[in-house]
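Task 17 of the worksheet. Students: predict the tertiary structure of the chain below and write it out as structure tokens. Keep your answer in the requested format; marks are given for formatting as well as content.
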Amino acid sequence: LTLHREELQVPLLIRLPEGNDVKTVEENVSLIDIMPTIRDLVGLNKSLMDEGQSLEPLIFDEPNDLSNRFLFSHLVKKQKEKRLEISSVIYKKWHLITDTDGKNELYNLHTDRMEKFNKYNDPRSRKLSKKLKYQLRTFRKNCRKYQSETKRIKISDKENKRLKTLGYINVEDK
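Model answer:
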């Protein structure tokens, strides 16, 4: 698993009961946008728990600033005794991927959709890389997910076996 575009980019299809129009949008959107969108479409108030933005303006061709936002992803890989955290941010045409081993990658998604040409060490990209790394740090600092404490719990061998059977625990995880 990685946080490259091939892993992150999946089509999002929305079908409204009264509409048969087909439309493609170029803006990057996220799964966290689904709940705010549903709330808007059915006339419910926005919830403080919603971290995404409503896609209603994209659906109805209304003015919006969705193309000017930062989209974040985070992945934890456990391999035996090692824990590797990978974070990524997409902003407009740029995608920064960084990990706890110190690896940094920066790709121009308009000219390099397959993310083959890392621009991170290009001197012309330093200011942008710094800006995107700052946004990642700010996100981790402010995101509710990272503000809660992680607690270890003890589970029985039976529960452990059941969770492995269901695919929730990898054989390598302890």
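Marker's comment: The chain has six helices and four strands. The two ends are 19 Å apart (CA to CA).
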